[in-house]
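User: Predict the complex with zinc ion.
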Amino acid sequence: MREFARSFYNSPAWKSCRMAYAKSRRGLCERCLERGIVRPGVIVHHLVHVTPENVGDPDVVLNWGNLQLVCRDCHAELHSGRGDRRYTIDEFGRVDVIGPPIAKGS
Ligand SMILES: [Zn+2]
Ligand SMILES: [Zn+2]
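Assistant: Here is the predicted structure with zinc ion placed in the model:
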C-alpha cells in the first residue's frame, strides 16, 4: 500500500464507512450480482481511486457514490488492464471516465 493511503485506510472514519457500506450492499459483490451471481464481497473499492490529492476529501474517499463492494476476482479485474482507468468528478459528484474503456473479456 502506498504511504499516503495508509493512514486513511487505517482511520476509524474509513473503517466505519466501509462496514456500513458493505452492510448496505448486504455483503454481496455488486459486479457479480449484476451478472446474476451471488457472491460475498470482500473489498470496498473506490471508483475514483484514492490519490495524494483527494485522500483528505471526504466527498471522494468516504462518498458512497464512489464505492463499490466487490469480490477478490472482480477487484483484480478492476485494477487490471493496460493502466488504470482515469476518472474525474464534476461539481455534482458525477463520475466521468476519461479515455477509452478497457475492453471486456476475451
Ligand atoms: Zn465479483
Ligand atoms: Zn480498488
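The pocket of zinc ion (ligand 1) is lined by residues 29, 31-32, 39, 70-71, 73-74 (CB under 6 Å).
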